[in-house]
Design goal:
Length: 169
């Protein structure tokens, strides 16, 4: 039997990140077809004090890999992103999908009760158990950034809808 925190995390991250990669590919094609500078999308923000699209995508990947690693009791990998283009984001998503897809579901055994403590920027976060971490912190943050990335592209005129955001399941 596959552990519930595995099934409630890794396949969810895989579904949304795979859909995000497809949406980014459509955005790149849209930019090329309409002769729009890619940075018009990549640096777009909902409001000046919010992070741009490129950061929203990277953070959604970071939540997917960090959450999966922590629940599996593994070190959180660090992926290098060298550029600021659509291809660089696709590479970051691919690295994230490869990492989380390579985690053995058995590693998640016991994670529901395991306390978690880690640094998030300058802040130390502590959760009494993996279940609270996944359901009350990690998934909401993951979906926030993935949805914001989708909204930025939709607002920019990329023809995508809810089915594109959800991808295949």
């Amino acid at each position: 039997m596959t552990h519930p925190l595995y099934t409630g995390s890794v396949p969810v991250f895989q579904q949304i990140l795979t859909a995000q990669a497809a949406i980014l590919a459509r955005a790149a094609a849209h930019a090329e077809a309409h002769k729009i500078e890619p940075d018009a999308f990549l640096q777009s923000r909902l409001f000046p004090d919010m992070w741009p699209l490129i950061k929203q995508v990277r953070i959604s990947c970071d939540f997917a890999k960090g959450t999966s690693a922590r629940l599996a009791g593994q070190p959180v990998p660090s992926f290098e992103i060298t550029g600021q283009g659509f291809a660089d984001l696709q590479s970051y998503i691919a690295q994230t999908l490869a990492f989380i897809g390579g985690l053995d579901p058995a590693l998640f055994e016991g994670s529901e009760a395991r306390p978690l403590k880690f640094m998030a920027g300058p802040n130390e976060l502590e959760f009494p158990q993996g279940t609270a971490y996944l359901h009350r912190f990690a998934l909401p943050n993951f979906f926030f950034h993935a949805t914001t990335a989708y909204g930025l592209l939709r607002h920019g005129g990329v023809e995508v809808g809810k089915h594109d955001y959800l991808g295949s399941f």
